[in-house]
Amino acid sequence: MPITPLHYPLAFALSKTNKKLLLPGVVVGAVIPDIEVPFMWIFFNDLPDHLILHSLVGAVTVGTLLAVVVTWLFYPPIISTIFRVNKDELMEVCTPSAMLFLSCLIGVLSHLLLDYPMHWFNPILWPWVNPYDVVGPLVLFFAPFGPINRTAFWMANRLTSAIMILAWIPILVYYQNNDLWTNHWLGGSRLEPSQ
């Protein structure tokens, strides 16, 4: 998997495909599945570290609900404190609504979309299919170079991470002189940079 912040460029791009989508919901949804990883390491170390929230069933249900709650209750105070973004505007955008729910759902599904190609075990169809029976296509592409759970996974991971790092560049360039943090963490068509 790319490290969690590297899910942001895809979430940002998806939020720009439809001006009604709420960037905070898409962003939180895009990172929320990774909160299960430390819990799996600590409490269920005999299971894969990606399981419930990285499955379609878990992402659509628990992941989306969790993303809505986190966006509503935690996103405004945390982002406004760290990045000095207007907290009242954040709270207005992050109020529970059908659009916030849809934005969080799209974000959670974008996380699965980005992770799927590069995992040597994939819980996307769990609980119906064993995660070890679903290998990402990018890992299979690199399989001739070494074991899928080490070399191929490492190569797929590094390639995906590099692409996502490069994807940050146009975002930063686009907003370099246009209130970077407000546009990144609040979003919204009224905050689009001036032409």
Considering the chains and any ligands shown, give keywords for the structure.
195 residues, mainly alpha
Short description:
With 195 residues, the chain is mostly helical. It has helices at residues 8-17, 23-31, 36-43, 56-73, 75-83, 87-93, 98-115, 137-142, 148-174, 180-185.
Verbal overview:
There is one protein chain. The protein is mostly helical and 195 residues long. It has helices at 8-17, 23-31, 36-43, 56-73, 75-83, 87-93, 98-115, 137-142, 148-174, 180-185. It has one domain (4-191). It contains ten helices and no strands. Helix 1 crosses helix 7 (98-115), helix 1 (8-17) crosses helix 9 (148-174) and helix 4 packs across helix 7. The longest helix has 27 residues, at 148-174. The chain is globular and about 50 Å long. The termini are far apart.
What's the helix and strand layout?
Blueprint: H1 8-17, H2 23-31, H3 36-43, H4 56-73, H5 75-83, H6 87-93, H7 98-115, H8 137-142, H9 148-174, H10 180-185
Outline: globular
- How far apart, in Å, are the first and last alpha carbons? 36 Å
Q: Structural class per helix/strand content? A: mainly alpha
Quick one: biggest sheet? Answer: none
Mean pLDDT: 86
The total number of structural domains is 1
Q: Which radius of gyration do the C-alpha atoms yield?
A: 17 Å
Assess the beta-strand content as a share of residues.
Answer: under 5%
Helix content: 55-70%
Q: Which regions are unreliable across 5 or more consecutive residues at pLDDT < 50?
A: 189-195
By DSSP (H or I, 4+ residues per run), the number of helices equals: 10
Number of E-type strands: 0
Sequence of secondary-structure elements: HHHHHHHHHH
